[in-house]
Design brief:
10 strands, six-stranded mixed β-sheet, alpha/beta, two-stranded parallel ribbon, 2 domains, 539 residues, globular
Length: 539
């Protein structure tokens, strides 16, 4: 196997190495239609099964606000996204209703758009087989979760795909080049107005333009304007958001939980590709076989396409630089657009192998992808009622039990003494109970240890706009006010109970079930079972 770089970008019909398989005009539309039908069925089933989690509840309530109220909430760092994301969400709700599908409809559509853009871009360079691989492979990665998650990351991914299409049209020139430059700039601006870290999308295209400038000996003013103007346009929006985030996080441990350091780049790719490890291994196995079966053919890649792909692959590293520069947290899902570089380089592996006139090695791998996707799809259909979904890169199961949005919090309902309050340190469980069970929420309190936790401040600010819940309290406040109480959560309950027992509390009951723990504790000085208001300071 050998790779060759061409000095110019040739599309599939023009390239000497592009396969001519499946040239029938009806084949590509039929392929894209079949993909779309299976995709929407798959994703909408997942979206309808998954109940809202912590971040999505913020999305839901903020999308209900008027523009003025929304901006007030965003300046207070209740959520960290620019306003366009919430307006897209409101549009999805207007189309499909305020439900599990309507709230996630923009992400469902945007991820589909990304897959089609990946197909279009790769198909023109490496043929329909490689295009199919680029289109389907994202469904096996850690990014797929964000196709049905009401957060802006799937939307940014869709805009990244559209921007690549606009960029290619600009590179082709012609009478409509100016129109494509305007569209490219607007697409970038829309991505930036959905998530602040989306500004790194400028980097791959800037790298290509630096390469073009170096080879052509003069810069392309139109392209540079299309890249720079949207960045300048979002600065007035980003500065108040950044100021609010700094005020929220100052003195908390949040930065140590999500640090912007270089180790995060490798962890990002683990997060992205670990679910697809078997498919990546299979791809390289087929590519290796292709060097022996039928003889190798060179993988021809235009230099600027290669630079563009490397630019997308470098986005997680660019995120580290940006995070350090603005003292912001680094979260893997912020850089999903790196997937464009992955699918491009993976798909073009199969451009150079052919038996007779068909790319049979690539076709074999595409068949493996399709069969495995169909297996997963049929499994989803067959066991839809009992299907479990997990948050990416963790073993945390999301609530999917039909008719039971708090199935994963079932142990909470064992706290039958309604006169005794319940405390939890788990902000995700706390907010979901507040949304799905207002009656139980009246007894539930969120306490924070240490006192300056990010979640404590966040829930304090969200109280104004979110579902009704008891104001969050510090560790000392909660246990000082409630000498007899339940404590609910996960493994952290052991440490909390141990700490309390060292300070004169006693454990009266403990239940554990499927990762949940419910303990009843009371202060040794409590003379009778009561939910009193006496304060016993916890040292």
């Amino acid at each position: 196997m050998q790779a060759e770089l061409e000095p110019s970008a040739q599309t599939a019909p023009e390239s000497r190495a592009a396969p001519r398989s499946f040239s029938h005009r009806w084949f590509t539309p039929l392929l894209l239609t079949a993909f779309s039908i299976f995709y929407f069925t798959d994703v909408l089933l997942r979206a309808s099964a998954k109940y809202f989690w912590f971040d999505e509840i913020f999305t839901l309530y903020l999308s209900r606000l008027s523009p003025g109220e929304l901006w007030t909430a965003l300046e207070a760092a209740v959520d960290n996204n620019p306003p366009l994301f919430y307006w897209f969400t409101k549009a999805g709700i207007a189309l499909a209703g305020e439900n599990r599908i309507g709230l996630r409809l923009p992400e469902v559509i945007a991820f589909w758009v990304f897959c089609l853009c990946a197909f279009w871009f790769v198909n023109r360079r490496a043929g329909v087989v490689a295009g199919f691989i680029a289109m389907v492979f994202p469904l096996f990665t850690g990014a797929f979760f964000y196709a049905y998650d009401a957060r802006p990351h799937g939307i940014v991914l869709g805009f990244a795909g559209l921007c690549v299409i606009c960029w290619e049209k600009v590179q082709q020139g012609g009478r409509r080049r100016g129109l494509w430059l305007v569209l490219m700039s607007l697409v970038l601006f829309a991505a930036f107005m959905n998530h602040c870290y989306a500004v790194v999308l400028v980097i791959p295209f800037a790298l290509v333009e630096l390469f073009n400038t170096a080879t052509a000996r003069r810069p392309d003013a139109g392209v540079w304007a299309a890249l720079v103007l949207p960045v300048l346009a979002v600065v007035p929006v980003y500065l108040p958001l950044l100021r609010g985030v700094h005020q929220l996080l100052q003195g908390t441990m949040h930065a140590s939980v999500f640090p912007a350091n270089w180790q995060q780049v490798a962890r990002f790719y683990h997060f992205l590709l670990d679910p697809a490890f078997l498919m990546v291994l299979t791809a390289f196995a087929f590519a290796f076989i292709g060097t022996f079966v039928g003889g190798p053919r060179p993988i021809v890649v235009a230099v600027r396409d290669f630079v563009l792909a490397l630019g997308f692959l470098a986005l997680p590293a660019a995120g580290v630089v940006l995070g350090k520069a603005v003292h912001a947290p680094y979260v893997y899902r912020y850089f999903l657009s790196a997937l464009l570089g992955v699918v491009f380089l993976l798909a073009v592996l199969f451009r150079g192998y052919a038996l007779s006139r068909r790319n049979l090695i690539g076709l074999a791998f595409a068949t493996v992808l399709a069969v495995y996707w169909m297996y997963s799809f049929s499994h989803l259909l067959w066991r839809h009622a009992a299907h479990r979904l997990y948050y990416p890169y963790t073993s945390i199961a999301l609530d999917t039990t039909p008719g039971r949005p708090l199935a994963n919090e079932s142990l909470l309902f064992s706290a039958t003494d309604t006169s005794i309050p319940i405390g939890t340190q788990d902000e995700d469980r706390f907010l979901r109970v507040a949304y799905y069970s207002p009656e139980l929420s009246r007894r539930l309190y969120h306490f924070s240890k240490p006192e300056l936790e990010h979640e404590y401040r966040l829930l304090q600010r969200f109280e104004r706009w979110g579902p009704p819940y008891n104001p969050p309290e510090t560790y000392n406040e909660f246990f000082g006010a409630h000498p007899r109480c339940y404590i609910y959560g996960g493994d952290e309950i052991v440490d909390i109970v141990s700490d309390l027992m060292r300070q004169g509390w006693r454990l009266t009951s403990l239940q554990m079930f499927e990762g949940q723990s419910l303990a009843m504790v009371e202060h040794a000085a409590t003379s009778a079972p009561r939910a009193g208001t006496d304060r016993h300071a916890v040292q």
